[in-house]
């Protein structure tokens, strides 16, 4: 049964704080604990979590603001659950931050933490159309942080980073064995023939995985696929067993990793190059996908982060995050998140790298959202250096060609809105006599000179022209570069290098905890900066004006 925690609003007359030495109390007031209590703990909206509990039955829940705060603090300091609870029991700063003025006021065990996480996970699965509860809490705290710090949000930067869940990077043979073993273990043992029962024996794993030479891998893989097919055939007439996730996983592996050869009348294992990136990568995390970026291979997810970047800000806050399968492109994530970021923060300038460049995103940001996109570079094929760029032509509204670089006006021009293609015809005789005709993109034909290009090519040319300005490129790079430090802080400081959970939903919830923890760390830094500024003002030497005895 749900019940809000209001006990912290009225403290006891005599408690640990009141019995402390005055200097100790002064040190406590300067620590992070009062900041957390006032600006995070008291700002947690517990009512949003009421749906996790029964309305009118059962014993009252453990306080949601305490359970959430424990999760935030865990990721703030990258604690394990054991370390977290030890700190909660005996660290008075944490007790104070959680509204408790005496150590040991409320006992919480590990099972309570696990149960709360399970409820969050199940609620997120049951309500896929909603932003998850942790993101809602992230958004509420961000609004409060922005209000008290007066941080400017008109300029922001965006970047993505690879996130690996708690899985091992397995080869195909190991993956096939894991899938088979899970499927066999999910079946009643009395239904299995002897050769399938042996799959669960340690000797089978040793023989298949550890005693295989490189030239034997293909044959061993085919043997495991045959056992998988036999398992599926055995359960085909048993609907209750066939519906189990472990059996469905076996079917998925066969569908993705093999093809049926009608001549040989059997399944043939696909070549590595024919395996799709979104195919199964781990028997223990069915959502994880494969991605190769440059020379690096990664299995798992990608987290897209956005944060403020105005030079006038004392600190910067993360304003948005999203975790997706790593097969999703940066430009797709930006296109989905930018309208929401604009609505919440009023962003007007967004700084990214070239991986976020795309015609649709650029057009949407500029025309619909009034957001100026700034890039540090552009990916893809570079234009020929000796060719005249499209930006040298005079073009109206990116639809109508008015003149060429030599001021020749076209005989007529046309814009195909469906294909976003711009076409212009010029006098071929004038073009033949033009001194720049060899460098010009206009194609001279017998009866006409034709210029034809898509809007995407024009947008790319305009962006490259901006980046050709060294000052512009330097400013874009400078504004975006610091987000690499934010990514490093979250991955190394808050433990996102490799998560301790599996699955996309659980990983997204954990990344939410880490982003909230990072923003609180930034809030702590802001208070530290303001205290330092206040001290500098208070100790500033007084100056006496000439001829006046009163100091000012």
Automatic annotation (TrEMBL):
InterPro entries, A to Z: Tnp_DDE_dom, Transposase_InsH_N
Positions of the Transposase InsH N-terminal domain: 45-119
Domain of life, source organism: Bacteria
Pfam short name (any one): DUF772
Secretion signal, residue range per the UniProt entry: none
Residues annotated as domain Transposase DDE: 404-523
Name this polypeptide is given: InsH-like transposase
């Amino acid at each position: 049964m749900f019940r809000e925690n209001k006990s912290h609003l009225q403290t006891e007359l005599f408690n640990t704080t009141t019995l402390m030495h005055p200097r100790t109390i002064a040190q406590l007031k300067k620590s992070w604990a009062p900041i957390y209590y006032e600006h995070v703990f008291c700002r947690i909206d517990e009512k949003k979590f009421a749906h996790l509990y029964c309305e009118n039955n059962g014993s009252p829940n453990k306080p949601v603001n305490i359970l959430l705060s424990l999760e935030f603090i865990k990721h703030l300091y990258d604690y394990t659950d054991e370390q977290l609870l030890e700190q909660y029991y005996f660290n008075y700063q944490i007790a104070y931050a959680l509204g408790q003025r005496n150590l040991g006021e409320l006992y919480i065990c590990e099972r309570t933490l696990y149960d709360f996480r399970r409820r969050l996970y199940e609620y997120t699965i049951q309500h896929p159309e909603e932003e998850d509860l942790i993101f809602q809490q992230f958004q509420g705290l961000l609004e409060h942080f922005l209000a008290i710090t007066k941080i400017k949000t008109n300029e922001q930067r965006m970047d993505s980073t690879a996130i690996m869940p708690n899985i091992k990077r397995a080869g195909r043979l190991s993956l096939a064995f894991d899938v088979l073993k899970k499927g066999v273990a999910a079946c009643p043992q009395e239904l299995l023939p002897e050769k399938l029962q042996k799959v669960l024996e340690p000797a089978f794993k040793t023989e298949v995985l550890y005693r295989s030479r490189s030239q034997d891998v293909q044959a061993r893989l085919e043997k495991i696929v045959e056992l998988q097919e036999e398992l599926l055939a055995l359960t085909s007439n048993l609907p209750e067993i066939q519906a189990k996730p472990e059996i469905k996983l076996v079917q998925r592996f066969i569908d993705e990793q093999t093809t049926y050869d009608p001549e040989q009348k059997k399944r043939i294992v696909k070549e590595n190059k024919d395996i799709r990136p979104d195919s199964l990568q781990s028997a223990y995390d069915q959502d994880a996908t494969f991605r190769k970026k440059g020379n690096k291979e990664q299995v798992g997810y990608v987290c897209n982060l956005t944060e403020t970047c105005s030079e006038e800000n004392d600190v910067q806050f993360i304003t948005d995050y999203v975790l997706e399968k790593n097969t999703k492109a940066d430009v797709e994530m930006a296109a989905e998140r930018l309208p929401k970021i604009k609505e919440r923060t009023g962003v007007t300038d967004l700084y990214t790298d070239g991986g976020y460049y795309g015609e649709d995103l650029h057009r949407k940001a500029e025309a619909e959202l009034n957001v100026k996109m700034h890039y540090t570079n552009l990916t893809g094929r570079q234009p020929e250096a000796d060719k005249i760029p499209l930006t040298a032509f005079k073009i109206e509204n990116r639809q109508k060609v008015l003149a060429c670089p030599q001021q020749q006006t076209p005989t007529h021009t046309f814009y195909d809105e469906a294909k976003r293609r711009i076409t212009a015809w010029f006098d071929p005789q004038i073009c033949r006599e033009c001194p720049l005709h060899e460098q010009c993109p206009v194609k001279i034909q017998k009866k006409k000179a034709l210029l034809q290009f898509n809007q995407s090519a024009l947008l790319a040319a305009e962006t490259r022209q901006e980046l050709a300005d060294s000052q512009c490129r330097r400013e874009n790079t400078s504004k975006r570069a610091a987000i690499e430090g934010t990514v490093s802080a979250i991955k190394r400081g808050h433990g996102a290098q490799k998560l301790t959970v599996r699955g996309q939903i659980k990983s997204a919830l954990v990344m939410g905890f880490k982003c909230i923890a990072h923003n609180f760390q930034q809030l702590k830094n802001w208070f530290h900066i303001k205290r330092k500024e206040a001290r500098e003002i208070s100790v500033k030497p007084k100056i006496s004006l000439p001829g006046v005895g009163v100091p000012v």
